[in-house]
Structure formats: C-alpha cells, structure tokens
Amino acid sequence: MSPEDVYKLGMLARLEITPGEIDDVVAKLTDIVAMVDQLQAVDTDGVVPMAHPLDRSQRLREDEVTEEDRRALYQQSAAAVERGLYLVPKVIE
Amino acid sequence: MHRRTLAQLADDLRSRRCSSYELTTHFLARIERHDPSMNAFVTVTADHALADARAADERRSRGDAGPLDGLPLAHKDIFCTEGVKTSCGSRMLDNFLSPYDATLVARLKDAGTVMLGKTNMDEFAMGSSSESSFYGPVRNPWDLERVPGGSSGGSAAAVAAGLVPAATGTDTGGSIRQPAALCGLTGLKPTYGRVSRYGMIAFASSLDQAGVLTWTAEDAALLLQVMAGFDPRDSTCLEEPVPDYRAGLNASIRGLRIGVPAGFFDAGLEEGNRGAVETALGVLESQGAELVGIELDNLDLSVPVYYVVAPAEASSNLSRFDGVRFGHRTEHAEDLLNLYTRTRGEGFGAEVKRRILTGAYVLSAGYYDAYYLKAQQVRQLISQSFSRAFESVDVIAGPTTPTPAFMLGQKTNDPVAMYLNDIYTIGANLAGLPALSIPCGAVGGLPVGLQLIGPHLAEGVLLNVAHRFQAETDWHQRRPPDFDAENA
Question: Is residue A11 part of a domain?
Fold first, then answer.
C-alpha cells in the first residue's frame, strides 16, 4: 500500500490525513491488510455469506408515523443552524 | 459497603440497613478519592445521583420500591444519557449532550437505579486496553502500571476498585469479557439482539451487544433481567420472552456437557493462564459436569474475519460524524468537502482513523469480493462450527484472554498484536452467541478469566454454571489490595 493509495482512501472516507501522519498510517494499514490476507487461503466455494448472526430477516412494521417532531431539541447539538436548517459552507458560487 | 455485591446491597436497602442516599454518598466519595489514580470516569453525575437516590428512598418509604431500586451503577460512555455528556471516548463527541436516553439506560432508570457517572473507554469502543480514549488511558486497580483491558475498561476498573458496585458495557469483539478477565470481574455479553442497541453509539452493528460488569453471576442476572427484552426501536432486537435468570442460578450442573476446544489452548496461551483455566474446568467437573474435547473449525480465522467485518461496518456507521448535525466541527473549513475531511481528521484518534480506512479499503471497488464477501463466508463457516459443537455440548469453556493484564504502552504501537488479545472472545460475536467471563485464578497477583460460551439465548445456562462455580470458589471475592480497606 502506497501513500497515494492511503490519501485516496482518506478522500473516499472524507478523512483528512496529514503529511505528519501518513508514514505511520501506511505502515500500520499494511500490517493489518497482511493479517487479514490469511482469509484468501480458505476454500469458501458455495458458502453463503452470513447476513445475520441468528439467521433472521429484518422485522417489518406498518408504515405509519410513530415519532413526534423533536427537531428543535435535536438541533441544539449542531454547530450552526438557522430557521430550522443546518448551516454549512457555501457550495454554490 | 464497597465490598458488598449488588445483590447484598439490594438486601441492605430492603431491610433498611442503609439508604440509597448513604450508598450513593459512599461511592461518590470513593470516586472522588480514588478515580484520579485510575481515570475510570469521563463524567461524574453527583448532583443527579444524589437527587435520584433521595427519590429512590422516598419510593421505598412509601412501600413502592422495585428489586433494584436505589442501587448505584455507572454506564459506559457509549450509552446516550439525556442531558449528560456522551463522549464515546472521543474528541468528536466531547461537546455532545445526548437529547435522549438509550433504551438500556431508560430501563435501568425506570427500575430505580442511580447513575453515578459515565465510564471511560477506548475511542468508539475500538480497542482492547482503554488507552485510545481522548480522555487518557484507564489504569488497572490491580496494578496501576497495567491496562484494565478494553474497550469497557473504565467500567471494569471502576467496579474492580469498588467505586461503583456494577457497570454497563458493550462487547463487539470481547470488550466486556476481556476487561472483566483482566480486572477479576464477571462480565456478560448476551446473545446478539437480547438487549436493545437503541441509543448505544454504533461501532459494528452486526456484532455490537450491551451487557454488564459485576462481581458475581448473581449480580449479572439481576441486571440482565431488567435490560433484556424486545424494543421496537432496535430493528435487530429479539422478540423473545425473558426468562427469570435468578431463579435458575442454583440448578445442579450434574451431567452438563462442557465442550473444551483444543484451539483455545494453543501456543499463544500463557502457562499461568492455562493452569488457572484447567484448574477451573476441574472444579466444574467435580460438580458433575462432563468435559468433552471438541474442535471448532476455522476459529483461528476469527481475528482476520473480525478485522474485515468490524472496520467495514464502522466505516459506514461513523460516516454520520460530519461536523454538521452534532459533535466536533473544524474551525478551518474553506468549503463543504474540507468541512468534512478536517472535522473528521481532527475529531478522530489514530486507531479510529485506521479502522475507518481499513473499512473503506475492504469495501472499495475491486476489493469487496476478496475481503468483505470472503470474510462473511468464513464467518458463516465459524458460526457453523459453533452450531455443530452445540449439537453435542451444552456450553463451551476456555480462557478469556491469552495473558493477564499487560503493561500500559506495551501494544499501542502494534495494532495487530493488540488485536490478537481478542483471539478467544471474537468467535462468540461473529456467531452472535452469549458468553461470559468469570474470575478463576491469578498469575503474579493479576486475575485470570474463564470464558463460557453458550448457544443462542442460553444466558441462563451460562449464569447458572458461573454461579455454581462461584459457590465453590472465592476468586470473585478477591479485591485489589490497594483499594480494599473499609475506610479507604
């Protein structure tokens, strides 16, 4: 794994990696990938990938409103809101 | 008071030997005196606790108190608590006051328990030593130069040092059982879906499960009774009846078949731990249980499977931390893209970043089949190995960890060595099985844990075996010497 690969992963994950961090991140990710590469040796032909630990399917419910509107309370946790909207840096010039 | 179990304290309250206010005051004083040496708490909620204790005492004087009413406990800082900081051990949530209670917190509150505070942990529960917290490492009360295990290390250290009689935790790959083992406690991870995950900050949603750290199996049974059960707010919570766990504790274990996997006693297991666990198995055998050698195929691949599946799920779950709706937000954003990247780069610590990147890697185009799909297939094989074993045995037993508590800093620079600490615990998470750790010996003054794993929903059997073991041994009564004096 190269520094370029890791910078690209960081962009995919929306995670800034600084030049000061990069060598350490590359070295440790390389170790982790080498460890999980043990899986390649296992014969898994015809094995159904696990979808749920208890082999159950997702529970469904009626499509009806069950929660009350608590927007004002929840927005108290946000860094910037105005008139019920979350504020972010300008995206359109 | 701090040498007494939760069940004993419940009796003390019932018989009016003490009040909840006295208990709460006693434990808060111990936190104030001893926690600076351990760093087990992120937040202490003294004012809330004293008010809740007075309310519990009033309910009792009206004859209106439930079985757990007035008992103090602490919650891992991964559980949302209304109006109280819920940090998950991260700078990302250092400013987060949860607007609601997790279902587990609400149920224990409704049962009258008194929350003394929120316990320290590895950041986002990603770790086995409680060293990756934004709030600094937690120390093990048995030896302050050693780690308490993780990720529920604050809960383990707090209970072991007698700062609180019980605490909640979460277990994604061993995060309740491993710290319980390293701190000499009983730690129960229930079946996947037995306890609601609503309001529990998600790490790996197909593996995460809430549980408890206590001195005894009886105490774990008392708490699980309240915590377990269906919750419509968690789509994976099981719709299954909750048995009376305490009623089954004393059942005889004569004729119980205990599977002992050869792979759990491999070269990685330290001799002292091996000896303690073998002695413990002998105790169960002397009570009439039958030990049966078993093989669990592919269990040696638990760690690589886990370090594909858990980071993959984490990279998805942690995408919610974007600096917009809650938590940390960078002050250096020039546009929307670097609002995200800088917020996350500043807010997450090194281990969390590694897991997000690992997850992004194994899910990325061209690698998904080779890693994620492959891991879910091997996970299926591991789960089938457990199912086959449970056709001929009632429970599986072995060590919880390969070694006793290791030194602070010993493994922080080698993630793979840190990951291998969970080699015996991860299998139960991959297969969604209930498992617990109980203290069963000591090596050089440090506790050793015995792990019991059961079939789905067999928490009652595990608690029964653990309780019978604790009726014959006194490992669960040993306390860290420096924190044990009655007036300390």
Answer: yes
B33 domain-assigned: yes
**Pick among B361, B368, B384 to test the A interface (most A CBs inside 10 A):** B361
DSSP B135-160: T----BTTBTTB---SSSHHHHHHHH
* Long-range contacts of the stretch A14-19 (C-beta < 8 A, 24+): A14/B319, A14/B322, A14/B337, A14/B340, A14/B341, A14/B344, A15/B341, A15/B344, A15/B345, A15/B348, A15/B353, A15/B356, A15/B357, A16/B338, A16/B341, A16/B342, A16/B344, A16/B345, A16/B346, A17/B345, A17/B353, A18/B345
| Option in B334, B358, B378 nearest A44 (CB) | B378
Q: How many domains does chain B have?
A: 1
Residue appearing with tokens 């757990």: B68
Tens digits of pLDDT across chain B (488 residues): 889 999 999 999 999 999 999 999 999 999 999 999 999 999 999 999 999 999 999 999 999 999 999 999 999 999 999 999 999 999 999 999 999 999 999 999 999 999 999 999 999 999 999 999 999 999 999 999 999 999 999 999 999 999 999 999 999 999 999 999 999 999 999 999 999 999 999 999 999 999 999 999 999 999 999 999 999 999 999 999 999 999 999 999 999 999 999 999 988 899 999 999 999 999 999 999 999 999 999 999 999 999 999 999 999 999 999 999 999 999 999 999 999 999 999 999 999 999 999 999 999 989 999 999 999 999 999 999 999 999 999 999 999 999 999 999 999 999 988 898 899 999 999 999 999 999 999 999 999 999 999 999 999 999 999 999 999 999 999 999 999 876 65
> What is the CB neighbour count within 10 angstroms for residue A70?
10
Sheet architecture: strand order including B210-214: B41-44, B114-119, B72-76, B167-170, B210-214, B186-189, B435-443, B446-453, B395-399, B257-261, B290-294
* β-pair partners for B214: B186
Range of the domain at A14: 3-41
Distance from CA of A9 to the nearest CA of B (A): 6
Residue B92 lies inside a defined structural domain of this protein? yes
pTM equals 0.97
A11 to chain B, any CB pair closer than 8 A? The answer is: yes
Contact B304 A38 (CB under 8 A): yes
Is residue A37 included in any domain, yes or no?
A: yes
Number of domains in chain A: 1
Range of the domain at B57: 6-256+474-483
Torsions phi, psi of B8, nearest 5?
-70, -40
